[in-house]
Structures are given as structure tokens and as C-alpha cells.
Amino acid sequence: MAYLGMDSSNIQPTEEFPEDAPLRAQVEKLLHAGLRSEVEPRAYDPEMQQSVLARLQHVLAEEVAKRVEIAGFTLHPYAAEGIEEACETCMYFLSHRQFCALPELQLPVKPDWSCRLWRI
Amino acid sequence: MANMLWLQGGACSGNTMSFLNAEEPSACDLVTDFGINVLWQPSLGMDMGENVQKLLRDCVSGAIPLDIFVFEGTVVNAPNGTGTWNRFAGRPMKDWVKELTAAAQFVVALGDCATWGGIPATAPNPSDSKGLQFLKKQHGGFLGANFKSKAGLPVINIPGCPAHPDWVTQVLVAVATGRAGELELDDLQRPKTFFKSFTQTGCTRNMHFAYKVSATEFGQRKGCLFYDLGCRGPMTHSPCNRILWNRQSSKTRAGMPCLGCTEPEFPFFDLAPGSVFKTQTMMGVPKELPEGVDKSAYIKLTAAAKSASPAWAEKDIFVI
Ligand code: SF4
Ligand code: SF4
Ligand code: SF4
């Protein structure tokens, strides 16, 4: 995705975190293999957001598939009302590390992925 | 020598505590260097009972000239407009306030409760509290919109929950040394010298704001607190990052969002669940966008800012 000629997919993930690449590949593989994540309902209102976060807080860090499922990951931006909800624009996305810094997720991602906790 | 009287209505004493911590100048400097004679103050006054009543009566009658009247806390009007829920020196505090403000050369409202009603006046406002000349954003308050003290100024509002110690002592010095005329007040009667800039002015997280790198938890040493944690720094008039607290730090420097405590709407959204420390959003997009920016422009701006962000913006910085 590119806005105003800027394209954060050009930013290469930092090599400072060697554990990120295999984990990112694992998430991608899970979704390609047909893992059905809870893409909807979206966590737009505070109650829904809290309920998704509360469920994530009970999942162990190593249960990656479970986290991806509850958060409603997709390998493409989710579009609603003309807005593309992509990791790239999400407030939790670290563009250099290509990482989701939402405390309950803490997962390597890609700019054009998405999840239902997206906030800008 | 300027006589100062300080009373407390519906309050938590936070502004008195703040005042006693002042450093530039200190509460003692006011007396020794700037000629302020503290007639009475809730934590410093030595007199009690009858003596205080006599002192107050003398201030009202003019037997003791009252140069500065400082009021901390709300004017309590409950029940049924009588004000008897807050009695002081033998009568409702609100009756003393009415008479003392009419007798004083200058009236200073100190802290959010005295300026706009603050937390006590938040709906449903059970104590029927008002600020001296405002109730929240509405001009008027207890004294009415047309009130002017003897020197011709409206109430000088020093808001904050509590106000910073130095805002208080510096305003008192200006008034006591005859420089009140230099105190330019804004629309909400706050001295412009303190309340013209925003909390964000001088915030160490400004670059994170510009690059839209968000803090996700309190106390983090990186990221701006606006996007997720409800920081009101860009909308709040205060010098909190210019005149540091305890000369050391500020909320945002310590990783705590500004709550907008110098604005009349504080506490915002009447403390509705989910409104504190959380940026209010609609479909994931902030409800309050910068003026003139629509949703899709905001998203494009975010993408551009994030992709232009330097790598250091994602790393911890040293924040004092
Ligand atoms: S919270 Fe944001 S960055 Fe994290 S996975 Fe969801 S959309 Fe992507
Ligand atoms: S933390 Fe608050 S005051 Fe500081 S830059 Fe961000 S929004 Fe502004
Ligand atoms: S940072 Fe904000 S909430 Fe804190 S004291 Fe300053 S104006 Fe008030």
C-alpha cells in the first residue's frame, strides 16, 4: 500500500530482532493454511475492544494461532466505509521493526495485514 | 505590604499543598521578600474560632484592608441554595465569599474547583457547586459574569488540579507588587503568560506525535500518549512542559497522559466509563481530529508520517 508516494513496505524490517522473521512466517503460514480468524465483529466500541483484549490476556505468549484467531488477523487490509484498516496505518504498528506493539499481541506483522483491533 | 486572605470551600486542600511546595518564589519568600501579609490561610493561620470570625468581619467592613482574596474550592450552594453544607466561622461559606469578594481589591480563584467547579461540579453535582465566575465553560458562576473586584479586574483564574505552585506564587507576587495590570487574561480569565501555550509545548514526545508513533502503556520511554492513551496535551492550555513540576518532570515526560486539568470541561466526559486515559474513537479513528482534516486525509497523513519516521522513534529515549 502506498500513500502520497510513501510506502512503508519499502522499509526493511530491522535485523535487531532475529526472532521476528520466523514468527512472522509462522503467522503467514497459519493464515494461508486456512486458519479462520474472528475478523468480525470489529472491535470499534470500547466494550468490544475490552472483551477482545480480555480474551487475549488469557492466552499464553506461545499460543500464536490462538492470538491470531482472537485478534481476527487477515493477510490483507480490511476495508470498511471506504477506509482500509491496514497494520501500516495502525497506531500499534512499528514501521521499522514491522511489529505490532499492542501489549496483548506483540507479534511481527506486515504493513498490509490487518486485525480487528486496528486503531489510528 | 499587601494583606492576603485565603479561604477554602468545597476542596481537597490540593492547592494549599501545592502552594506550600512553591520554590520560585516560595511561600516564605512571599512574606519576607514581596511584602505579602498572610492574614489567614487554612494550613498557616494561627487564629481559631471567634478570632477568625472577627478577622473576617473586619475584612468585610474595611477595618482591615483586604488586598488579595484567594479562594480555593467550590462555592457550595446545597441544600436548596442555602450553602449550609459548607459552613465556616459561624455561617455558610458562600455568604463570606459574597462579602469578601466585594471588599477585596483582587480576587484570585485557585484550582479547578474555584475556577470552574472542577470535580465537585461534575454531573450530577450533588453539592450544587459553582466556581467563582464560571460553572464549567459557562461564564457567570457564583459571582455573576459582570463581577469586578475593587481594582477593576474580574476574578483571576489560576486553574489546575492542583495548580502548579509557581503559577500561584508568581501571580500573587505580580498582584502584591502592583503589577496586576501586566497580567493579561484570556477569555477564561487565565493569565496568558502561563496559559497561552499548550501542555504539548516542550513535551519530549513531540517527535513521536509528528511521526505518529504511539505509546501503548503508561510509563513507556517512547511514543506519544495522544493516539491511544487519551493525552489532551495538544488541546490543553498549560505550561506543564515549560515550567516543570518539582523542577524535574511533567506528566507526559513520565509517560502519563495530560488529562486537560486546566480546561473548564475537566474532568472530561463527566468521567463516563471508558473515557479516562482512552482516546475516543469512532470506527478506530479519533473523534477529535485536527481542524480541517477529514478522516481519509488523516489516514493518508498517518501513513506518510509513519513511513517517514526515523528508526530511533521506535526506541526508548531518555525522558526526565
Ligand atoms: S493491532 Fe494494528 S498493528 Fe496490530 S495486528 Fe492489529 S491492525 Fe495490525
Ligand atoms: S504525549 Fe501528549 S503532550 Fe506530548 S506530544 Fe504526545 S499528545 Fe502532545
Ligand atoms: S499535564 Fe495536563 S493534567 Fe497534568 S497538570 Fe498539566 S495540564 Fe494538568
Task: Characterize the structure shown.
Chain B: InterPro entries: Cytochrome-c3_hydrogenase_C, NADH_UbQ_OxRdtase-like_20kDa, NiFe-Hase_small_C_sf, NiFe_Hase_small_N_sf, NiFe_hydrogenase_ssu. Chain A has one domain. Chain A is built from three helices and five strands. Chain A has helices at residues 20-32, 46-57, 64-71; strands at residues 78-80, 83-85, 93-94, 99-100, 107-108. In chain A, the strands form two sheets. In chain A, strands 3-4-5 form a three-stranded antiparallel β-sheet. In chain A, helix 2 packs antiparallel against helix 3. Chain B is an alpha/beta fold. Chain B has two domains: 2-191, 3-Layer(aba) Sandwich (Rossmann fold); 197-315, Cytochrome-c3 Hydrogenase, Chain A, domain 2. Chain B is built from nine helices and 13 strands. Chain B has helices at residues 14-20, 27-32, 49-61, 93-103, 111-115, 165-176, 192-195, 206-210, 295-308, and strands at 2-8, 36-40, 68-72, 75-76, 87-88, 91-92, 106-110, 129-130, 134-135, 138-139, 156-158, 281-282, 285-286. A five-stranded parallel β-sheet of chain B has the order 2-1-3-7-11, with helices on both faces. The longest helix of chain B is centred in the last third of the chain and has 14 residues, at 295-308. At the A-B interface, helix 2, strand 2 and strand 3 of A face strand 12, strand 13 and helix 9 of B. One iron/sulfur cluster (SF4) binds next to loops of chain B. One iron/sulfur cluster is lined by residues 87, 90, 92-93, 100, 102, 105, 109, 113-115, 117-118 of chain A.
